[in-house]
């Protein structure tokens, strides 16, 4: 087994027209043309624009904002959060630079709130069922996938009961990671979305840097023996090398022909396999989900409740 689920114990929710040759100059001639009359009356479009003020985005959720307990309120909160998060991700990709620097505050706070809602629903199945019924159909499907994945992974977690130290750090920029995923996909034929989902589940895209309690290391949580066989001489702590090794191992274990078999070899748990494939499926449906997951934070599950280690 490659991965040891340190990411589960800790992180579970947790890329001007050119000028042609000069044309011969035509003989000069005088042309008289009347200018079109300019109407002083505003058009219907201009009237509408005058009446409609610029859109004001809702206030951003606080990092520890209370999660509504009523299903109707929870559905409204989740629907609004996802809508604003998609807009914020679009703005980030269009006007920012996901290959450099930090994500915008709006993306960070909205993604964190989305994550916290799904974690709450994963622990409250009855509330979750009533909430799904009040969501638009497309969002209900997305919510079910995320909640089911979170519930599966939480079932594998052993809560921390004693003081423990975990080493965390900021992840590499989102589009730098995306380049690594696609490079590994091209080399080994493993879908980049699956590789992203594995890294997301294991270490929240490299935020968790502590070795697991059984000795697995690096952003993809390799056991030393498996790394020796599939690491191709790379550095187990290097993100690019680790992703190539993961793609190498998954390909040798059956991917892309049989992802379930390959992922089960990576980690011997059907709950783990299901969770990874659910997250990968969401990324395939809408790449904005990758950017949302990238901004989900590291939580430690303790006997006294969850503790967030990263983020605002």
TrEMBL record:
Q: Which GO terms describe its biological process?
A: peptidoglycan catabolic process
Q: Name one Pfam family in it.
A: SLT
UniProt GO MF annotations: peptidoglycan lytic transglycosylase activity
Q: Which domain of life is it from?
A: Bacteria
Question: What is the name of the protein in this document?
Answer: Transglycosylase SLT domain-containing protein
Q: Which PANTHER family match?
A: LYTIC MUREIN TRANSGLYCOSYLASE, MEMBRANE-BOUND LYTIC MUREIN TRANSGLYCOSYLASE B
Q: Which residues form the Transglycosylase SLT domain?
A: 181-275
Basic and acidic residues bias: where?
44-54
Under Gene3D superfamilies, the record lists: 1.10.530.10
User: What segment(s) does the record annotate as region Disordered?
Assistant: 16-67
Spell out the Low complexity composition-biased ranges: 32-43
